[in-house]
Write a structure and sequence with these properties.
The chain has eleven helices and 18 strands. The protein has 483 residues and is an alpha+beta fold. It has three domains: 97 residues, Herpes Virus-1 (2-Layer Sandwich); 123 residues, no CATH class; 150 residues, Sandwich (Apoptosis, Tumor Necrosis Factor Receptor Associated Protein 2, Chain A), CATH 2.60.210. The strands form six sheets. Strands 11, 12, 13, 14 and 17 form a five-stranded antiparallel β-sheet that branches. The protein has a four-stranded antiparallel β-sheet with strand order 10-18-15-16, with no helix packed on it. The protein has a three-stranded antiparallel β-sheet with strand order 2-1-3. α6 packs antiparallel against α7. It starts with 30 loop residues before the first strand and ends with a helix.
Length: 483
């Protein structure tokens, strides 16, 4: 895949804003820097400056500086920096799992099997090139020439209106064909006239009478034979033209019939394909959801990688929080999402790690009890030998909109701003971010465990026990503590 402007990329890519073209919002392609310091793709900048260069102004909000062509230079330094940035293929939405360095991205795009082909005529997207090519030959929204363009019809029409054009233009088409035939007849008459002129100017007419008669008879016979041959040739040409017109007419009828049959087949195939794609997406969604359904106990373990990069993004304000994948309290239960502020939220920025829960809208919400009232315990795992896991329990405020039945896609998040001091989270004495990875477990307490049980629960988190075994252990612990 070649691209004239910038390189598109998936939002999961680790990309600093300085590597993005301020015109096309894609990764810089042959970057150039202007006098105000902003960068553009070479082709994007050419588009910006090709009309009235003296009036071109940097379009970045709040900038407004004039783009002086003399101050523009090729930014090879930024091009070298970009070689090592991590890129996720923008075809990820189509199923591509490629992730790599920008220096390899162009080569990948040239062979990516998940690239989307978009029909310019109807906008339908294809991931299979063969189907795309076949579609272009039959697309009903494509603009085509009239089959009688050789006879003078210069109409450009939508393929789906071809038959309507033929029906509505029958008189015009016949007139064009008649004009062609008239031209042929005029050419034949002109040929005869020229033959007659040649006969009148023939030198044999100046000979003596006796010789003239002999020569005239010979010349007359020769001329007659030549004329007859020429007329016969013209008649053959005229017959061929009539046959060609008839053939074109029949082919047009046959083409219209085949086109209709193909359109019907294509429409049915498109419907079947959409149904198949819908079925596949439903199955894949159910499969993905099934991986988050941990029986009916409301527990979700979130593994977060590249912590240092995400912390840097939070500190710089590029992305101040990250969301976990959505998870469910049960197959037909509450739909939730954990939100993490690695550098703290608002008043606790740069001092604490903040954890929140977001209640999301689900198709089974009308069957559930509202507001959401169950305590939620967050556990940040200590991966060191100390095993000093950090636990905090969030008790929902039943008056807060955060825990009411969602009307939009999700409610405003609610949680614990001061979950843990940052100096402890990133201290080398602990393993909360060991190997650039963090683990956070969200536990929905449907059983209303007493607070005394959580230290015991924390001990079980690194035991390798199944969740059923954990519940049994906790039940045994409660039973003994109440004796």
């Amino acid at each position: 895949m070649t691209t004239k402007f910038g390189f598109p990329f998936d939002s999961d890519s680790t990309v600093n804003v300085r590597y993005i073209c301020r015109s096309c919002n894609n990764l810089l392609n042959k970057p150039k820097q202007v006098s105000c310091g902003h960068r553009y793709c070479s082709d994007c900048l050419e588009e910006l400056t090709k009309n009235k260069p003296e009036n071109n102004i940097c379009p970045i909000s709040g900038c407004g500086q004039l783009l002086n062509l003399d101050d523009i230079f090729y930014d090879r330094a930024i091009e070298n920096e970009m070689k090592n940035i991590d890129i996720v293929c923008y075809n990820k939405v189509n199923g591509c799992s490629w992730r790599g360095k920008f220096s390899q991205y162009q080569e990948h795009l040239n062979i990516c099997e998940y690239i989307a082909f978009i029909c310019d005529s109807c906008g339908i997207t294809f991931t299979d090139k063969t189907m795309f090519v076949q579609h272009q030959q039959t697309c009903l929204k494509a603009i085509i020439s009239c089959p009688l363009w050789k006879f003078g019809c210069d109409a450009k029409i939508l393929r789906e209106t071809l038959q309507e054009h033929i029906d509505a233009s029958t008189v015009d088409h016949l007139q064009m064909i008649a004009d062609q035939l008239t031209s042929l007849i005029d050419a034949q008459n002109n040929f005869r006239y020229q033959q007659q002129q040649q006969q009148q100017q023939d030198p044999v007419l100046s000979l003596p009478f006796n010789q003239q008669g002999q020569q005239k008879n010979l010349t007359s016979a020769t001329l007659t034979m030549t004329q007859n041959a020429s007329i016969l040739a013209l008649q053959n040409d005229l017959l061929k033209q009539k046959q060609l017109i008839e053939q074109l007419h029949n082919e047009n009828k046959s083409l219209s019939l085949k086109l209709k049959q193909r359109d019907d087949l294509l429409s049915q195939t498109r419907v079947d394909l959409k149904l198949s794609q819908a079925d596949f997406l439903d199955l894949r969604k159910e499969f993905e959801l099934s991986k988050t359904f941990i029986h009916d106990n409301g527990i979700y373990l979130w593994k977060i990688e590249r912590i240092n990069q995400k912390l840097n993004d939070a500190v710089n304000g590029k992305q101040i929080y990250i969301n976990s994948p959505v998870f469910y309290s049960s197959i037909n239960g509450y739909k939730l999402c954990t939100k993490l502020y690695l550098n703290g939220d608002q008043s606790v920025r740069n001092t604490h790690l903040s954890l929140y829960i977001t209640v999301c809208r689900n198709k089974y919400d009308d069957l559930l009890e509202w507001p959401f009232k169950y305590p939620i315990t967050f556990c940040l795992y200590d991966q060191s030998l100390k095993r000093e896991h950090i636990l905090n329990t969030l008790t929902p405020d039943l008056q807060s909109d955060s825990f009411k039945q969602p009307v939009l896609e999700s409610n405003k998040s609610g949680g614990i701003p001061k979950f843990c001091p940052l100096f402890k989270v990133f201290s080398k004495d602990y393993g909360y971010a060991k190997n650039d990875t963090m683990y956070i477990k969200t536990f929905i307490d449907f059983k209303s465990y007493p607070q005394t049980i959580w230290p015991e629960w924390a001990k079980l988190q690194m035991s390798g026990f199944s969740e059923y075994a954990e519940h049994q252990r906790l039940a045994d612990f409660l039973s003994k503590s109440q004796q």
